[in-house]
């Protein structure tokens, strides 16, 4: 069944004319990314050429997807917008609030009991405002989107950084904060700085143990966690055609780990096969009619250096399998070299867990490739040395995999089949085999491996690989195992070697499912009442943030100077805190508790300028707020890397932080700060970061003249009375300055609706 087929037909009916006009305006052949961008302009037909990395442009996305953790705040904001229905097709997916512990049945039952208030809220709000609702257990948002909503040439936004997964089906799918989604839900344009373009030319075909996952693990090494910031990564070449649609999705998914705006592939036969296998023949037929517009112009791919800002070339035939980590997804090591590297860095060699799944690698093909390794272990009498956990990507995949005997293969090895949900990938893992901060190693097919990410233990060394490599290393139980060259001893004392994995792109008997978990909204939701208990500790209605009075900000105190990597996980942790994602005041008690204080190298331990004592960051900040004292957060490079969670912007805003001053921002977090009425600025001279002292006071002496393209002057007053004057840059345009003046973007929407 093709959802929103009329919308898709409309997009396709307009695409030829808009692409032709864009090619005329730009004056040269177009990349796929440019075709989709120019055909989704808010003002419809292209009439001007935009400068990459400079011009802010208004777009009209085709659809929106929200996961349950971020949907709560997004929908709480939308409820204030004064609209009767969402303006574009929107869905909510319940995949984040299910903790992996005992197995799918028990874990899902427990989640429905402990989070029923949140699920009921989301279901009722969805039904009221015309939003499709996917029940708990229906699947991981990005896999469900790929199977049901993604379509070549479309543009979508989602309140999760891995929305980019849909690029595997030829979309421009972009992760945003909830406030961005609210704009589009309310019928407003969505603003984005016109991205730069990175082209990745793929040649050859994967051999043996090499998987699609290894492409993005290699790209992450090349570009690092910030090398894709402000860019779309477009993959092309004959090698791209040798990858499955879900393999392409895996590559696009982890593009979030290089900071990319999104990633995409041109429409090809693998995408058509996937559309038809997922009961979307009509979309495939329509896409085939405009096939030439659903990929880049041939001239672009023949001479990519003339059309992309950067070009990378990877030969899939010679690409080696990799494991990336620990603690960062861009630390890449070819399998076979990891043992020596681990010993040198004192990383634990013994592997305790192998985890397969997540939105990155939970497709049918992923399970078959991993199961082919698991079946060998059974056949060759190998006893796994590590525990196994499996998260299927959707109920459709789980049902089909069970029908085809794939899950039984894992179960025969003692694996735990978790719910069709995110689970350990986002810290929703009750890991019974570890206590405290014991040093240990796990391998997984997820996308992120930041400190504390999976199990809350800062000493869990997590390594990212393909599902089949995770299976092999978990069976061996050693990080230094190289399945391409090493042997294992089975229970009979025999030396055996694992053969290369074998995968099945799409199920030979087709996909099947009894209940996919989808609930359509009521046609008329006007009679539905969304009730929120004022005493609830899970859901809290929002109060608008105060507008800016238009004057200079004087006497602001330093809350924390964050040292090194400060991701959204550090600013607003997930795991057990997910339960408070709909209650801004409660979740604000995790504000910046993971950030490392540069003055003592400790987390959640900062000095208060009120009494000189050290205490937790949220407690210290609440004391400043109680006295009406504004504060500043100072950070390093790529501040706000990682998830799209806008809580990382809303929490400091709620607690009274006024300014975030850093060396550089991750894209989504910078936008989230702007949307919530925060001042997010960067050092003009990065070395000025070193000037900041623990007892500093900040005076923003020319903020009253805040304007597009005009740097700000900050007077820093040190405890000894000495002063430094520094410059700070910003990327606010006139509209975004309007958000700042009104107190938030939502305040501006409400004001416009009343006008």
Tell me what you see in this structure:
A hairpin with a 6-residue loop joins strand 23 and strand 24. This protein has about 750 residues and is α/β, with parallel strands linked by helices. The chain has 25 helices and 30 strands. The chain has 3 domains: about 5-315, 2-Layer Sandwich (Aconitase, domain 3); about 325-495, Aconitase, domain 3; about 555-755, Aconitase, domain 4 (Alpha-Beta Barrel). The strands form 8 sheets. A 7-stranded mixed barrel has the order 22-25-26-27-30-29-28. It has a 6-stranded mixed β-sheet with strand order 6-5-2-3-4-21, with helices on both faces. A 5-stranded parallel β-sheet has the order 16-15-14-17-18, with helices on one face.
Terminus-to-terminus distance: 41 Å
Low-confidence blocks of residues: none
- Overall shape: it is globular
The structural domain count equals: 3
Task: Set down the secondary structure blueprint.
Elements: H1 5-26, H2 32-38, E1 56-59, E2 63-67, H3 68-78, E3 90-93, H4 104-114, H5 116-129, E4 132-134, H6 141-148, E5 155-158, E6 172-175, H7 178-185, E7 190-193, E8 196-203, H8 212-223, E9 231-236, H9 238-241, H10 245-253, E10 262-265, H11 269-277, H12 281-289, H13 298-302, E11 310-315, E12 322-324, E13 332-334, H14 338-345, E14 351-356, H15 364-379, E15 387-390, H16 395-403, H17 406-412, E16 416-417, E17 440-444, E18 460-464, H18 467-476, E19 488-489, E20 495-496, E21 518-519, E22 553-561, H19 568-571, H20 584-587, E23 606-607, E24 614-615, H21 617-626, E25 631-635, H22 647-655, E26 657-662, H23 667-675, E27 679-683, E28 697-700, E29 712-717, E30 723-729, H24 734-742, H25 745-754
Parallel strand pairs: 2-3, 2-5, 3-4, 5-6, 8-9, 8-11, 9-10, 14-15, 14-17, 15-16, 17-18, 22-25, 25-26, 26-27
Antiparallel strand pairs: 1-7, 4-21, 12-13, 19-20, 22-28, 23-24, 27-30, 28-29, 29-30
